[in-house]
Amino acid sequence: MNDQELYLYGIIPNYSMAEQIKLPVSMNLSVITYESISAVVSKKERADFRKMGTEPLAKLLVHHQKTIESVMSRGLSTVIPFSLGTFAKNQVEVRGILKKSFTMVMKIMKHISHTVEVDVVATWSNLDRILSVISVDQRVAELKTKILYKKEIEQTDQIDVGRLVKKILDEKKEYYVSRIVDAVRPLCQDVRQHELLNDHMVSNTALLVDRSRLADLEQVINSLDSDFSGKLNFKIVGPLPCYSFYTLEVKHLRYEEVEAAKRALGLGDVTSKKLFKKAYLTKVKQYHPDVCEDKSHSEMFDRVERAYRTMLDYVSFLDNLPDDEHFSLLPDAVSENALKVLIKE
Fold first, then answer.
1. Per-10-residue mean pLDDT for the chain, 345 residues long?
2. Domain ranges of the chain
3. Cis peptide before 322 (omega within 30 of 0)
4. β-strand 115-124 against 232-240: which pairing, if any?
5. pTM of this prediction?
6. Is the CATH number of domain 253-343 3.30.70.890?
């Protein structure tokens, strides 16, 4: 279909010629190569993932990750994933992404060539039992006694008890998280904590582990399970690509956005940070609502504000550009510069 673009899953080392890379045929994947790295892609209709509901987005995320893990299972163990919803218009744009990210990607690949991600999830084996223990905690007992002596018990009193119970529960979670991290850290290059998805979850920890230490990691988790006397249930997920540590995010501006900003600020084909900031301040003084209540001026003020933000985004892609150094706003220059690949926070 003409409206299909290229969806990016991840970057792999180009160990051999691209056509020799074995990818799952059923997934309609292909590779686009730049020097010693290749992007794994498939043709898809572009969609704005930010506007999707939770359920369809979750399904797409599962498909995205399963595809990357399927590539990994084919012996291509070093896969640097792209974030969900990364598209490129064509092969030229994909190669531009690879070119922009090449130095960073090579450093990452060197760092993770013998490592994988392993996620360790710990949940309460019996949350009700934990809550019953907390209910007789001295701090909770004292607060309840204080409330009972009041002439009238208010709803806020119940809220205060609930907050205290949560505080003590969080303290217990922090204790276990600390014990888990201290135990596994000697085996890991890096450790990241993920958000807890529900009340039953105690720890959701991502580990960057050398492949040779996976058996050691399992022994450590088994030892923790024994030390905690069954209070926690552990689940080990992996090995996985390095989702939590090195997922790539592509940011880019369309030439049309930069051209619109250029017109709104009255800039020439060549400008600088100093010049476009000066132009912005001049336009703000001219169109600010405090100066004129004319509706057309208000709309122009909004255009100027958007233009300024666009120009700030654009120069952020130019890496530490001095305020007085000139740069081009011509189409070829914008197409080359208005693209940035970074590690997703």
1. 79 64 70 90 84 84 89 79 91 90 92 91 93 88 82 77 89 94 94 90 94 94 92 92 93 88 91 92 81 69 90 85 89 84 83
2. 4-113, 117-246, 253-343
3. no
4. antiparallel
5. 0.76
6. no
